[in-house]
């Protein structure tokens, strides 16, 4: 990557061909080393935005810059996108061993990193992938996906199958990565456990637009104390307020059927 992994989005609008949905007028500036949480209700546009950022959909020429590069036009060295299509890749359901899989994605080139991920994700290298649980499969996938040292990581909630401890370890490792190397993370998630103190930035999306975004500490200042009214973390409390407000503005989807 030619420049530090800063992510700039400049008035990005993308509408799906033949559908009136998409994302509109999105502007963001996420500095190198930041860890951004993308927050929003189902259908808010998080996956659409992440896929645009990762260069998987064509966007207007100057709307996105990842380390100074338009991701659709140029190959993005060091950018990793882990989303649904990666999760459903059938390769990780074959009768194949863990080490063989890790080798196939370059594990031998990064032996220390491979061993660190195997240990962190509590992977038994004797596993055969057709005979593991969903969570075990997900851990191996994560090790595969993260093995090459990325500079920008786009994560579309891929930790749902992990148990609480594994997810906490994983999040801690991601945080250390951004502290020890020059790299940047954007993570779309609905699961806020163990995320207190994790994000440097928050982006709140609703109905295909960014409603607000900024430094997490500043945005969380509005919520008093470390634990909110419902026992949630301050982050959980803030997000709950956002989503309630979004629902109020949009109205329940069931109303659409009645009209
Ligand atoms: N391929 C597509 N073609 C047309 N519309 C789409 C397509 N993919 C998503 N949409 C629509 O775009 C909107 C945003 O979808 P998106 O998947 O980005 O939401 P999301 O915030 O990631 O939701 P979730 O939290 O459920 O994953 C939705 O209204 C959805 O119906």
Please name the defining characteristics of this protein.
259 residues; alpha/beta; Rossmann fold; 2 domains; six-stranded mixed beta sheet; three-stranded antiparallel beta sheet; 33% helix; binds adenosine-5'-triphosphate; ATP binding
Write a structural description.
This protein has 259 residues and is of the alpha/beta class. It has 2 domains: 7-78 and 150-258, P-loop containing nucleotide triphosphate hydrolases (Rossmann fold); 90-149, no CATH class. Helix content is 33%, strand content 20%. It has 9 helices and 9 strands. It has helices at 46-53, 84-87, 98-104, 111-120, 134-146, 164-180, 216-220, 234-250, 254-258; strands spanning 7-15, 22-30, 35-39, 64-66, 79-82, 152-156, 184-188, 201-206, 209-215. The chain has a 6-stranded mixed beta sheet with strand order 5-6-7-3-8-9, sandwiched between helices. The chain is globular, with a radius of gyration of 19 Å. The model has no long low-confidence stretch (mean pLDDT 88). It binds adenosine-5'-triphosphate. Residues 16, 19, 21, 40, 42-48 line the site of adenosine-5'-triphosphate.
Write the layout of secondary structure elements.
Blueprint: E1 7-15, E2 22-30, E3 35-39, H1 46-53, E4 64-66, E5 79-82, H2 84-87, H3 98-104, H4 111-120, H5 134-146, E6 152-156, H6 164-180, E7 184-188, E8 201-206, E9 209-215, H7 216-220, H8 234-250, H9 254-258
Parallel strand pairs: 3-7, 3-8, 5-6, 6-7
Antiparallel strand pairs: 1-2, 1-4, 8-9
This protein binds adenosine-5'-triphosphate (ATP).
GO molecular function: ATP binding; ATP hydrolysis activity
Domain ABC transporter: 7-232
Pfam families: ABC_tran (PF00005)
């Amino acid at each position: 990557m030619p420049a530090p992994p800063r992510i700039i989005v400049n008035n990005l609008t993308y509408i799906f061909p033949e559908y009136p949905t998409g994302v509109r007028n999105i502007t963001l500036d996420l500095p190198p080393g930041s860890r951004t949480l993308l927050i929003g209700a189902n259908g808010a546009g998080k996956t659409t935005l992440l896929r645009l950022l990762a260069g998987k959909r064509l966007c207007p020429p100057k709307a996105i810059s990842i380390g100074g590069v338009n991701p659709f036009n140029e190959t993005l060295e060091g950018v990793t996108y882990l989303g649904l299509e990666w999760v459903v890749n059938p390769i990780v359901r074959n009768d194949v061993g863990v080490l063989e899989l890790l080798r196939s994605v370059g594990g031998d080139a990064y032996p220390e990193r491979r061993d660190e991920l195997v240990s962190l994700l509590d992977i038994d290298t004797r596993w055969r992938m057709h005979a593991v649980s969903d969570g075990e499969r997900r851990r191996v996938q994560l090790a595969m996906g993260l093995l090459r040292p990325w500079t920008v990581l786009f994560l579309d909630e891929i930790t749902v199958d992990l148990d609480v401890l594994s997810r906490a370890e994983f999040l801690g490792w991601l945080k250390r990565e951004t502290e020890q190397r020059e790299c940047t993370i954007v993570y779309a998630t609905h699961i806020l456990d163990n995320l207190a103190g994790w994000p440097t930035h928050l982006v709140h999306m609703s109905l295909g637009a960014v409603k607000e975004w900024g430094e997490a500490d500043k945005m969380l200042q509005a919520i008093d104390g470390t634990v909110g009214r419902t026992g949630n973390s301050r982050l959980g409390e803030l997000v709950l307020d956002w989503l309630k407000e979004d629902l109020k503005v949009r109205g329940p989807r069931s109303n659409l059927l009645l009209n």
